[in-house]
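To the wet lab folks,

You asked to see what we're planning to order before we commit. Fair enough. Below is the target structure as tokens, and below that is the sequence we designed to fit it. If anything looks off to you, flag it before the synthesis order goes out.
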């Protein structure tokens, strides 16, 4: 089966200063992870948890992280927020009060926005993979991005789509939350700037399983392609399968959030044929292949490609802690 891809490089830009690096325990340095470990976004959440765990195992196997002449074992503590703000807040409180965590990785935009002020008030160093620009503003001192936001690559993706996908009529579909609203606006702007016609936008609830009523409306508008945008990969696969069952013959595009294998698993090989998705990693990269192998040992399947953002991002954090002493 052929699967077209648009590759974008994730950028890590964590300007951490010595003034932010505090709270290392006597023998163990704990890093918290707040991510959806269950549900449709679980492939992203498992990557967010396991990427740092693989890194921690690498460092611990060499005796730990040396800071100021002392060795520290790295421990990753992950909590499931089910992609819900209240669960993310509860996870944050457990990590910072019970676990004594001073460093957290936050996957979703929903969780990052909900925790942004707490992170600042508590002076917790937080790394977020939120793709929404407004998640971080100039006033934030303790939250840092793990990777590029959608605004960095969507305009070029839209231009690429115009040149590589037949037709000009596009329908945009996104989750009904902060990340989906932002992605809807940005995707529409990018496609229009590329000379494509946006014929509509749809929102769905993340817990939704039956998409046939929505897809029936969409298909009636005769789109040349449907962009599933920031939809979780497993959910996107489900929508693709249901769309094909309703007779849609056009192209499905996924302009936000990696997950080709999860899309194929949800849609089936035949239904997923020709779907266009971005990738966050080069599958041929040897370093990436090693991380994939370690993930597969622990979980029993390949990771979502976004794992590179969490492995590399936490690596930068630990080097900053080490350098700051």
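Sequence we intend to order:
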């Amino acid at each position: 089966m052929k699967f077209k891809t648009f590759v974008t490089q994730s950028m890590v830009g964590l300007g951490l200063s010595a003034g932010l690096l505090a709270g290392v325990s006597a023998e163990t340095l704990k890093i918290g992870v707040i991510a959806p470990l269950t549900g449709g976004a679980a492939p992203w959440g498992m990557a967010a948890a396991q990427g740092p765990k693989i890194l921690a195992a690498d460092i611990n196997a060499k005796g730990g992280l040396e800071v100021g002449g002392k060795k520290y074992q790295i421990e990753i503590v992950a909590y499931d927020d089910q992609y819900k703000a209240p669960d993310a807040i509860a996870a944050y409180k457990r990590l910072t009060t019970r676990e004594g965590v001073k460093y957290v990785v936050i996957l979703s935009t929903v969780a990052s926005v909900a925790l942004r002020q707490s992170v600042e008030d508590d002076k917790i160093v937080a790394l977020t993979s939120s793709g929404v620009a407004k998640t971080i503003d100039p006033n934030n001192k303790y939250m840092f991005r793990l990777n590029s936001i959608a605004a960095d690559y969507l305009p070029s993706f839209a231009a690429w789509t115009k040149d590589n996908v037949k037709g000009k009529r596009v329908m945009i579909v996104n989750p009904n939350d902060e990340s989906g609203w932002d992605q809807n606006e940005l995707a529409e702007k990018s496609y229009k700037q590329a000379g494509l016609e946006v014929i509509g936008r749809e929102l769905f609830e993340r817990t939704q399983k039956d998409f046939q009523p929505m897809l029936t409306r969409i298909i009636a508008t005769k789109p040349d392609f449907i962009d599933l945008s920031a939809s979780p990969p497993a959910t996107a696969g489900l929508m693709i399968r249901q769309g094909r069952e309703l007779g849609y013959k056009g192209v499905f595009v996924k302009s936000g959030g990696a997950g080709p294998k999860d899309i194929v698993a949800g849609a089936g090989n035949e239904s997923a044929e020709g779907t266009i998705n971005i990738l966050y990693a080069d599958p041929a990269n040897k370093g990436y292949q090693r991380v994939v192998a370690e993930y597969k040992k622990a979980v029993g399947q390949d990771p979502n490609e976004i794992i590179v953002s969490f492995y590399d991002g936490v690596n930068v954090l630990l080097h900053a802690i080490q350098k700051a002493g």
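Structural context that might help your review: The first strand starts at residue 4 and ends at 7. Residues 5-26 have pLDDT under 50 and may be disordered.

Thanks,
Computational group
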